[in-house]
Amino acid sequence: xxxxxxxxxxxxxxxxxxxxxxxxxxxxxxxxxxxxxxxxxxxxxxxxxxxxxxxxxxxxxxxxxxxxxxxxxxxxxxxxxxxxxxxxxxxxxxxxxxxxxxxxxxxxxxxxxxxxxxxxxxxxxxxxxxxxxxxxxxxxxxxxxxxxxxxxxxxxxxxxxxxxxxxxxxxxxxxxxxxxxxxxxxxxxxxxxxxxxxxxxxxxxxxxxxxxxxxxxxxxxxxxxxxxxxxxxxxxxxxxxxxx
Length: 244
Prior knowledge:
- Helices cover 46% and strands 17% of the residues.
- By secondary structure, the chain is α+β, with helices and mostly antiparallel strands.
- It has two domains: 2-101 and 164-234, Gyrase A, domain 2, CATH 3.30.1360; 103-161.
- The longest helix has 28 residues, at 208-235.
- It is globular and about 70 Å long.
């Protein structure tokens, strides 16, 4: 299990398959099978990724137990293809006074959805006080509603997105690679980047072949994006007439 700062944890609870299963899934079309990874198989992995032959990557599976704030989970659950989710339910359990320990950052001046550096110590102190007061009040109000007989499924509507929850996430290797590609990128929110790094560390632990497979995927995808950006800048803003 890996602790993700003050935000929660990631634990790999099951892994079925390896990079060898990926190359053997690809080689079955030729009626072939190998017993160990070689440089030739590394080349095959590169070929599959570059040419977007992704079905072999869907024969390897992972299951993770996640403990995290709801606002991170809501971003994460946008990843649905090749994934299965089961989350703690506020209809069944009473939520504890457990919220993400935030370190607040400034709004980015250039990226509307992004952030810049951390607030100054003085501003951090003030914002932390406001945050703690707000989450404590919301949880106290939640508890008071329960005491007054309000059902859990309605009382929970008072609780903010920083509430801690837990879930089980299962995914194919293909889905995992897509998640890592997007959520390790510098444009992703820092909190989910930290979780993505923990997922990567758990997934490839003690598995050098899988680690190499992930490295190849991320490297090639980043090069593809850089090339696409270069082509876009060369084309400029002039519309392309495809009808002439």
